[in-house]
Structure formats: C-alpha cells, structure tokens
Amino acid sequence: MAKNPTAEPKYTLLFINNEFVPSVSNKKFATVNPATNNVITYVAEGDKADVDKAVAAAKKAFQRNSPWRKMSPLQRTDLMIKLCGLMARDKATLASLETQDNGKPYAEACLDVDYSIDTLKYYAGWTDKFCGDTVPVGYDLVTITRKEPVGVVGQIIPWNYPLLMLAWKWGPALAVGCTIVLKPAEQTPLTALHMAALVKEAGFPAGVINVVTGFGPTAGAAISEHPDVQKVAFTGSVPVGRLVMEAAAKSNLKRVSLELGGKSPLVVFDDADVDFAVNVAHEALFSNHGQSCCAGSRTYVHEKVYDEFVSKAVAKAKSRTVGDPFDDKVLQGPQIDNEMFTQVLSYIDIGKEEGAKLQCGGKRVGEKGFFIEPTVFSDVTDNMRIAQEEIFGPVQSIFKFSTVEEIIERANNVKYGLAAGVITNDLNKAMQYAQSVDAGSVWINCYDAVLPQTPFGGYKNSGMGRELGKDGLENYLETKTITMKVFNQTSD
C-alpha cells in the first residue's frame, strides 16, 4: 500500500447536515504530528452552538417520515457496504492521515483501516436481524415486542485508535437506524473528517452522520448534556467518563455506555513455552506504543520461570525499534502529545522511587517528537503506583507469583476490569483463572484478540455496556411492548 507521509488533509471544517461548514465562532485549532511537533493543519473548533446545529440536523434526519427512517433495512446495508468500499479505495490516504495525526506506524494504521472496514461490514449484516418477541400473556391478548432505534446518539471517541473507535461507534448505531453526532479527539480529528466526506459520497441522507471537531469541556460536554441526544457513547479516561455520566443524568437521563481505562493482568504459568509467552506479553503491552486501554500492563510470571522470562523480555524490549512511523523498520512511534509523554516519564520515575528495578529503557528518544524508549521494570509489587494506575505508555511491569489462588486474588486487586490474559498448557488452570478474573475479555494463550463479532467492555471502573458483537446493538435499541386484545367472534 503506497504511503504518503505528507498527505494533505482535504477536510478541516465541521460536517453538519452533509455539508462542511466553519464553526459558529470561526475559531480553529492546530492538530500536530507527534513525531515531529509540526502543525499538520488547522481544524474548525466546534462548541455548544455547533453541537446544537448538529443535533438539530440529526433530529430532523430521525423524524418519522424522513428518508433515513423510511429506508428498508437492506437499503441501510447497501449504504454501509458502499461506505466500506470507499474506505478501501482511500485506504492509503486514511492510513497516512492516521499516522501523521496519531504517530502509529503506517503498517499498523493500514491494519486499523482494514479492521474498521471489517467492523462496518459486520454491522451492515445486522440491519434486519435485531428482532422482538411474541410473548404469551393469556387467551384473549396478543403481545409482541419491537426493537426500535433510540434516536439521536452522541459519540465521543479517543485518540489512540481514532478510525477504529469511529467504526466501533458508527457500526451498530447505523445498523439499527439511529442518527449520529460524533466528536473525535482533538488530537486526532483528520480521519473522522475524511470519513465524513465518504459518508456524503456514499449517499447517506443529510443529518444522519455529523462530525463536530473540538474540545472535551466544550463540544464534548455539549453533547453529553444535550436534551435531544438520547444516548451517549464515550471511550476515554475514568475521570471524563464520570463527567459524561453526570451530564447525562442531569440533562435528560440519556443512556450511557462507557469504555474506560484498564490495568489488565497477563499471567504466565511455569508450564508455558517461555519464548512464546515473552512474545505474547511484549505485544500485549508495547502494541500501539502502550497506548491501549486493554494493554497487558501487569505481567505476572510464575516464580519458577521468572528470571528466564525477565531476561528474555528485556532483550525483546531492547530490540524494539523506535522512530519515524513511516519507516518500515520502525515498530514504535511517539506518544500522542507532550501531556502523555510527560505522564509516562513521570510514572517511570515513580517506579524507580518505589523500588521497582528498571531493567531497560526509561528515557526519551531523540530531541524532536514524543518518543520514549521501550521500558521494562522487574520486581514490581502490587502496592506500587505503577501496579495500580494506568500508565498508558511503553512500560512493562513484571511481577512474580506462586499459586493459582494467589494470582486470581492479586489479578482482581485493582479498580479496573477491562481485560485479562493467561498463558498455560493446563486447560483446567486456564479456565479456573478465566472464570474467576474480573474482566470483560479474557484471552487464553493469546492477547488482544478483539474481533467485530466479540463483545468488548469492562467490569468495575473500566466502564459499562458492551461494544462489538450482537451485544453492541443493545446500546442503541429501545424495547417497545405492544399488546392487543382479541375479541372472540361468534357466528350468526
């Protein structure tokens, strides 16, 4: 796939009612390439006034006799499939924009485009398959249930997987017939705006999908508290998730689904192949520069193989290439911005201060951009901050354990519960752990195996609701019960 490190963004305005328009305030903000610190372009800065316009457009598009509401399910399928075709056509552009805006290696950005297409295709197949029931209630009554779209939905997505999170949100909402107001992360707005252009080209009716770029405290808050938004979906941090819930409760008690942080345990038993386990654990943590909510950020290794594992994990981390994300040899690009760069380095300092052993890494790479060396700590204990708090960077923490019962208790001893993994050849151990760990997804002898058809979401502070799979549709559906009395007619 041809890459273009200097692909020019064609779309920098808000997308409302199928038109690109400036913000009401005419303000703009810079989106910056984290690998170079250079401004890529300036994007329209939307706020409450723009969200009001976008919601009004989405509300009109959802009216009972609108073109969107009168479409058959398979017509929605056709539109979604056409959008996927346009994404495939523009794959190189989407991937190049993603790499510039986010910093992830170009090859990974291409995979994200493919996965986004797969997700939308999966949900395109659901447009006519969410069904109600016939409920037995008595001799002279007939009761049926209908599944209906909730209406206008607000969607607020993060910067770590910009295009992929868009697809996760759009897919089920479009499948069931909702209309959308999307706010991409202010750090990574470019692929969402390009997707908006493809929405219009595919032929979606005006107002069905709207994209408002801007900042969380203004545009994001306006979506969360808007009285005409019936459901809000948010992926991001726990503190902001709480604000979204509060705004939803104080406005119109809109539905809320939250996919928040994680501190996911990956457990390696002594019967596992150590080389295999090292590779799985390495990718579980360092993939996407460690900027993943379900990263395997707590690596627990059985005491019998601990020293061997640490030695090989350190060698693996030292071999990981960091640099220009458009270089085919590079596996790790920069952190997203200076705030996250500083946060990660501060956690590395905290780990050293608390007594964890820094095995490798821990420093900045180069003088330009937000690059950090792949970092490995050993001798980490559960009470350390690096064991309890989400670092969101390329920092692997390795713990030692002895027994199955012990590791289940320790794995659950955090406020998060998004994901977990286990590597073992003992099926009974694997299932004992999988059934006992507090996590929405558990992977056995693999990690991060997230597919469009597999529900994803967390326990505890990791959020509420599920995305992907059939479960992902439920966030966007209301259940209506219809009961009719049947009159027994007698013949004359």
TrEMBL record:
<keyword id="KW-0560">Oxidoreductase</keyword>
<dbReference type="Pfam" id="PF00171">
    <property type="entry name" value="Aldedh"/>
</dbReference>
<feature type="active site">
    <location>
        <position position="259"/>
    </location>
</feature>
<comment type="similarity">
    <text>Belongs to the aldehyde dehydrogenase family.</text>
</comment>
<feature type="domain" description="Aldehyde dehydrogenase">
    <location>
        <begin position="21"/>
        <end position="482"/>
    </location>
</feature>
<protein>
    <recommendedName>
        <fullName>Aldehyde dehydrogenase domain-containing protein</fullName>
    </recommendedName>
</protein>
<dbReference type="InterPro" id="IPR016161">
    <property type="entry name" value="Ald_DH/histidinol_DH"/>
</dbReference>
<dbReference type="InterPro" id="IPR029510">
    <property type="entry name" value="Ald_DH_CS_GLU"/>
</dbReference>
<dbReference type="GO" id="GO:0016620">
    <property type="term" value="F:oxidoreductase activity, acting on the aldehyde or oxo group of donors, NAD or NADP as acceptor"/>
</dbReference>
<dbReference type="InterPro" id="IPR015590">
    <property type="entry name" value="Aldehyde_DH_dom"/>
</dbReference>
<dbReference type="InterPro" id="IPR016163">
    <property type="entry name" value="Ald_DH_C"/>
</dbReference>
<dbReference type="InterPro" id="IPR016160">
    <property type="entry name" value="Ald_DH_CS_CYS"/>
</dbReference>
<dbReference type="InterPro" id="IPR016162">
    <property type="entry name" value="Ald_DH_N"/>
</dbReference>
